[in-house]
Structure formats: C-alpha cells, structure tokens
TrEMBL record:
Site features described as Cleavage (non-hydrolytic), chain residue numbers: G226, S227
Localization per record: Cell membrane
EC identifiers of the protein: 4.1.1.65
Organism ancestry: Bacteria, Bacillati, Bacillota, Bacilli, Bacillales
Catalysis: reaction(s): a 1,2-diacyl-sn-glycero-3-phospho-L-serine + H(+) = a 1,2-diacyl-sn-glycero-3-phosphoethanolamine + CO2
Gene responsible for this protein: psd
Name under which the protein is recorded: Phosphatidylserine decarboxylase proenzyme
Length: 262
C-alpha cells in the first residue's frame, strides 16, 4: 500500500516545473546557509573540494563543485575505459539482441534508451554499465575514453527518481527521463555516454566550451543534483574487469575494463 502511494506521489511530482522551482532555490543566495547542513547530512568529503565551504555562494555551486587537483587518479593504460563519475554500479553486463536485461528487475531496449537513433545498431550486442550518483558523490562527469565526439543529442523527458525505489517501482525510468547523450569514436569503435536526469534535477549541462576532441579524464558535463550515467560500448569492443558487477562502488578515473583496439 505504501509503495503504491509513494509511486503515485512520485508520478505527480515528476513535472519539470517542480524541478525548476527546486533548481531556482539551489541557485539562489538563500540556499548558501544550507551548504554545511547538506555536506554533513550526506557525509560529503569537503576536504576534497576545490574551495572552502564558505567560498561557495549557492548550494548549486557547491553541488557542482570541482575537486582539488590530484583528488582522482586517471588510469593511464591506453586501452582502459575509465569510470566517468564517482558512483555505485547498479547494472552491468552484455546487451542481448538490443536489450539491457534486468536493471533492478526491468529490461530496457537500446532503441528507447538512445531515442531510436540510427546509431542503435552499433550497440545491439555490446556491453552496458549503469552508474548511479547519490547526493554524497562528486557530480562532474568526465570523458571515459580518448577519441572524437561525433554526435551529441538532448532527449527531453520526465524527472523520475533514479534511486533504487525509482528503478524498481517506476516504469523504465532510464529511458523516460531527460537524457543528454554523447557518442565518442575511439580506436576500437564507439562508446555512448548517456547522462540521465532525475527528480529535483534542474538540468544536465555540458562543460563549455564544447570540444570535439575527447581526452580521457577531461570534464565532459555535470549534473545539478543526483542522477545516473549509462555507458554503452559497441559490439565486440570491450572486456570488463573481473569484479565489475552491481554493488561495486567506483571513483572517477578508475579502470572499468579494456577496450579492444581495432
């Protein structure tokens, strides 16, 4: 009964105007006093932040903070695919005939996730990794591979929660929420970085200026409040590390597996 009620309330609160109100507050000077409480509530490692807490003028500025240089180590191996974010892996495995199977009990097709892009065929038998960012995490998204950005697409959508409850109880959240998709061509094929918006997220933004050259570890985009990144690797181009599985906590720059070069 309570699950059904929460689901109904979530459906009602998934409107973009509610996220816009939340976003406006987070970007206002009035939100500044919330920063210490927010950091304490979510046990955020403030010592890693680029600036002291008192130098952030809004909650949004703190949430989208950069880290001090050297806080994350980028795996240097040329063929390494790195995690673009600090996150919890909530799904990983082979794509089966165009379907991502059993992410929190639900299946997703590549066609719906990629908004029926002509590039869908590249990923029908590839590999996927779902990375969930909680409010505790660092929220800048970095480039997972060296290569060239060949396409960017913005897909409008809902703002359902992408936490455990949202993924289990709401219908196919990852392919119904707003998404920002970046396609990167590398030496062995292509990788899609699917950035999925969430409840109370005012936007997903690219880091400017936009560049076509993708350098592993460089900033790519950022979330304004928590969300999810889905990595898709083209057919026959990726070998995951042995312990890659749901429940694994990873940090930005950490090796997720090996790209098959050519």
């Amino acid at each position: 009964m309570m699950g059904w009620l929460f689901q109904a309330m979530t459906e009602l609160s998934s409107r973009k105007w509610i996220s816009r109100i939340t976003g406006r507050f987070a970007q206002s000077k009035a939100s500044r006093s919330w920063i210490p409480r927010f950091a304490k509530m979510y046990n955020i490692q403030v010592e890693e932040a680029e600036k002291p807490l008192k130098e952030y003028s809004t909650l949004n500025e703190f949430f989208t903070r950069r880290l001090k240089p050297g806080s994350r180590i980028i795996h240097e191996e040329t063929t390494a695919l790195i995690s673009p974010v600090d996150a919890l892996i909530t799904g990983a495995g082979s794509i089966q005939a165009g379907t991502i199977v059993n992410v929190k009990g639900q299946d997703y097709t590549i066609e719906e996730l990629l908004n029926r892009s002509p590039r869908t065929d590249h990923y029908r038998d590839g590999y996927y990794i779902v990375l969930y960012l909680s409010p505790t995490d660092y929220h800048r998204i970095h480039t997972p591979v060296n290569g060239r950005i060949v396409e960017r697409e913005h897909v409008p959508g809902k703002v359902y929660p992408v936490n455990d409850f949202g993924l289990r109880r709401m219908r196919r959240v990852l392919s119904r929420n707003e998404r920002l998709i970046t396609y990167i061509k590398h030496a062995g094929g292509e990788t899609a970085v699917v950035k999925v918006g969430a409840m109370n997220v005012s936007s997903i933004r690219y880091v400017e200026p936009l560049r076509d050259q993708a350098v592993k570890g460089d900033e790519l985009a950022y979330f304004e409040f928590g969300s999810t990144v889905v990595l898709l690797m083209e057919d026959d181009t990726f070998i995951p590390r042995e312990d890659l599985a749901p429940g694994l906590k990873v940090r930005m720059g950490e090796r997720l597996g090996k790209l098959i070069d050519g």
